[in-house]
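Hello again,

I reread your note about wanting to compare the complex against the isolated chains. To keep things tidy I'm splitting this into two emails, and this first one only covers the full assembly. Below are the input lines as submitted, including protein chains and any nucleic acid or small-molecule components. They are followed by the predicted structure of everything together. The single-chain runs will come separately.
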Amino acid sequence: MASLEEKEDARMSRAVKTRGSSIAPWAQKQRWLTEPETFLFAVVALLLFLTVPGRLLAQTDCLACHADKGLQDAAGHNISVDGDTFSKSIHGSLKCNDCHADIKEYPHPDKVAKVKCDGCHAGPAAELAGSVHSNSADHPCTSCHGDAHAILPRDNKLSAVYPLNVPHTCGACHGKDGMAQKHGLATVLTSYTDSIHGMALSKEGLLVAANCQSCHGSHHILSRKDAQSPTFKANIPKTCGTCHAGITADYSEGVHGKAIAAGKMDAPVCSDCHTAHAIEQPTAAGFRMQSTPICGSCHKDKFSTYRDTFHSQLGALGGYVETARCWDCHEAHSVRPASDPRSPVHTANLVTTCGKCHAGANVSFVQYQPHANARVRKLNPALYFIRLFMNLLLFGVLTFFVIHTALWLIRARYEQVRKKTAEGGPHA
Amino acid sequence: MPELEEAPVQIEKAPPKSERFFVRFTRAQRYMHAVLFSTFLGLAGTGLPLRFSQSYWARRLASSVGGFGAILFFHKFCAILLTIAFAIHLKEIFTRGVLHREKGVFWGATSMVGNWKDVKDLFAHFRWFVGLGPKPSFERYAYWEKFDYWAVFWGMMVIGFSGYAMWFAPFFAHFLPGWALNAVLVIHSEEGLLAILFIFSIHFVNTHLRPGSFPMDMVIFTGVESEEEFKTRRSVEYKRLAGQGKLESRLGEKPATWLVNFSRVVGTTAIVIGLVLLVLTLTAYFGE
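Full-complex prediction:
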């Protein structure tokens, strides 16, 4: 950053430069040159101008050329700068060659070096260098912070990194089209936009709604495979817990939270059930419809027996999402084994748990097994034999009558054809 | 088996006289069949998507009528109608058989109750199928018709009870053990599947689609059949009535053209719906 003294310095040298640069044969005719005080001042100023190295160029000097909206460099890039926009930007008080440091004088060389932000912003630059966006050619600061001459403070509503604008900014690359396809990046923007976080952000302008950097960070974004990353599996409960503290506390009490804490990485974390970006309101029909297969992807045996029950048959058809899903009985976050007295599926709690939906549920009613397996004789002998009987009945009756009726069909058709042939008519 | 030897003679010598029509089913019985098959189609159409809720067509069907909420409502609605029809039928049997002591309800030639002749007919029929004997002749209700009747009778009791046990599970839990609540779903769905497969394949072919009846037997819709049909299909009953001189008492009117046409449309629709459901059931069953 330029200090106040330097600015003063620059103003003075500008004054000298404008006048000094017009020293020509006609100067001798100028009256002020003959007045001693003024002359002395002019000499001192001229000396200063000539001796201070790397003097700073005022915006107006550069804008003399660069305000031209059509100004292009040799490669055809637009190199115009809007002075008004720049002066309102966070860097508006800086001089052009605070950043374009290789420009020492006018005229400057055709080829100008790329601006390096790390001269002032060393911290973020270092973080970025260690992140997935470390390749500075592909990910210059401006790819997130926007037009270099129009960067605004983060709390300005027009800033590219204002919380409500972050998804759009990241989505420029991580969106549905363009860069995302080109680099094989996940198409997360559309998922996020329709999610409960995205809706809160876009529909209600909720500043605390999670945007990209709430979970991923900003400059030091790491791959989710990196153990330091907030999106590394083991770190996800903590990351979500920065907002959802109560849920995370419940979760860490449950079997899944304890397993993750013990390093058993097969256990689910928040994003395994809720997804990472397409997070839905859990009570919404869409989430209830998709939720049981998520639990079922690990609890395969429980899922297949659940599918045999009315809860599942009914629930699979949609339009009636109230039927019991896994967590309606087992709890969503503080999942505990049935042997734990605090578990809603502990024997002592079943009347209450089933009674949430089935008014009038009694002790006999809760003997119902929501995961009964009629295929295994040892587990449910009564059910096994009932199913066996029903299947034998079904196959017995059908087999007998299929044979009976098939034979009848053949014989009847034979008789019909024979009769019609005898009558001399066509066969059918 | 004298009737077996006489039967072919009767069939082949039937002369096409001036056509007479005989009553086989009363108006009430025809209405009963209409209520039975419409509610059965309704129950099958709404029950199958539940039984095969993971299949693609079940989800499409359910979502097209407004999801499971609508399906459940319609299933229960048809169940109540069918229960009422069943209750009316039981009351009818009770009134005729017990109160009025009408002959031939519980036993005898015209009863639905099986007898020794049915067993003999079954074996004789099989012998005829494979060309080892003459075609048997039948009384008022042939053995496969009696089977249809009792299959539906048993089915309605079993499916009905298990259905109501699920509908009012907390109430039934007062006197049923907990595992019975698991069992009723197995019973309901397996018995329902049997009923659907049986009606839409065996009953359809035996009664309506086989050569001689194709495309459908109209007697259940119009209530009457021609004298030739009567003689051909139920020669024992025809001869019995003729012998008793009671044939005239069964004389009926030739069915009106509109009734025949209307019945064809309704019957064809029911058969087509049934066959579509049969195909869906089989694909879902073997695709499981």
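For quick reference: Residues 96 and 235 of chain B are 26 Å apart (CA to CA).

B.
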